[in-house]
Amino acid sequence: MNIIKKIFMKSPSRPLDYHRRWPLRTILICTLIFLYAPIFTLIAFSFNDSKRNIVWHGFTLKYYEKAFANAELMLAFGNSLAIALFSTLISIVLGSLAAYTLWRFRFPGKAAYEGVMVLPVVVPEICMGVAMMAFIARTGWPQDVPWPLNLGAITIAHIAFCFPFAAIVIRARLQSFNRELAESAHDLGAGEFQVFRDIILPHMRPGIIAGGLLAFTLSLDDFVITFFTSGPNSVTFPVKIYSMMRFSVTPEVNAASTVLIIFTIALTAIALRLQYRSQMTEQVK
Amino acid sequence: MLAQNEPIIRLKGVSKFFGAACAVDNVSLDVMRGEFFALVGPSGCGKTTLLRMLAGFETPDTGNLFIDGRDMTGVRANRRPVNLVFQSYAIFPHMSVAENVGYGLKIAGLARDEIMARTAEVLRLVKLTGQEKKHPGQLSGGQRQRVALARALVMRPAVLLLDEPLSALDARLREAMQLELVHLQKTVGITFLIVTHDQSEALSMADRIAVMDQGAICQVASPGELYEAPNCRFVADFIGKINLFEGAAAMHGKDRIRINSAILGEVELTGAARGAVTLAVRPEKIRISCEPQTLLDIIQVRGRVSDIAYYGGYSSVFIDIGAAQPLMADIMNAEQNGMRNVTPGDNVYCSWRAADTLLLTG
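Above: the input entities. Below: the structure tokens describing the complete assembly.
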């Protein structure tokens, strides 16, 4: 009875119940459809038992098997993971150092440095890509070296655009640091390095993890910059998918893309969770 | 013992400027070994800057400071034999209570067993035994304060510096902690230097108090002396409640002066002064009566009760005597003297012994 009442006898909408008025409702539903329908279609058709991505024929996992059996695709996936791992590690080290320097010290040209540092965030990716290609073509990076050294050129390019993101996140985290904590440790006998290691670094940790995950996902699914810097022996996952698509959009591509989506979502979820946890401890404080 | 009388802190002509503003103005001060010493003053008077200079977080622009006989010029905060309890407590949020307290000892390179033993000992002292494993987020404000105290005390500093340690606690807890701090100080025998803006806190806790105003020290004295014999108008006004009257003094005989005051009329006191003076009287020295008093050597003024503030044990009666500020008189509610029934609008006589009047020239 209650449920029937709820459905048929709607209570009048209250002032802030915007979502219950039809114009906004329409916009909301449209937005959700345009945002998520392609993604869900892609995932659904990765299980489609048909060579072409148009009509649903039946459930199968064979394209996942096919994707995992595709040596070139797997090599590209391995390349992507290796590049993401290295560029993340180096990005968080550089990002932490940059963030700490900007937070801790005053020096001439600080504002200019801060501006230049975030340039890769605002410069269009295509420009970064062309610039990186020109740079690497000029300086050269050996292509015939053993894996993973042949990924050096792409890794350097990825660090260049990932590290500002890491630095920004860590810098924001440091902003909430209570400087009396550092003074207090200093007062108890700790030197500059011990204060950093014991007090400031633990405070930075959630920012470092979040920044690292951000850098990781950015690097993992980057296409434009990678496309311009990758050689024939250093193809990454997104670039490989693109080249597969040029022949035909098979469910194999869907399967591979689904794996990438799940990977990225899992990492984002971890990042959000860590951010949330650190916010909670802050509130307890 | 000679060492006992040596100052543990000696400031010599210490000044500190922030830009053009003078935060500490040529301060010289001695704090004796084993003392509970308080620095009081309104906010912005430079007391916290002075404390931070002692801790090593600020460097004086002029002058020298000595701790335990050693000149502290160029000695960094982590090498000084003092520890500071911060106003915000500054407890490390990612460490447990025991880790917080043991941090300084760990940095000093002590063995694990000794760190454990000394941590346990100091936690017992501040009544936090059994809370070792808790994290700061799980502690109440009072408990966090004790952790901050324990963390500094465990270092056995020559001087423990406390920056407004009780200001974040509620009134009831604050009073309990005041007593506890005094007991603690007597137990450990360490010199305490506390900074507070709360004069009643300083009066109730300290052995000696320095009153600061605008970067300079006005008076250094015991609580009783500060209250009963302030050396200037600022100290009289800042410490406790007081009624002030302006007047012009002239010598009258060898050691008597005659003061002409617009409110009090002509008043004769023992002392020596000339020119503009301020007469002051504490509210609890004033008697209120319906009839004029006929005693000798009293000062008497007539007025009308304007307000009564009831505080339980005593009441403050505000009497309009034609001055800008009403006269404030405290009456104990325990006294069954018939004056308990004063009500606003009553015409009363306020009188006090001339000897209870403070003569302020500064």
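Note for the figure: Chain B touches chain A at residues 55-57, 76-79, 83-84, 86, 88, 90, 92-94, 103-104, 107-108, 136-138, 151-152, 155 (CB under 8 Å).
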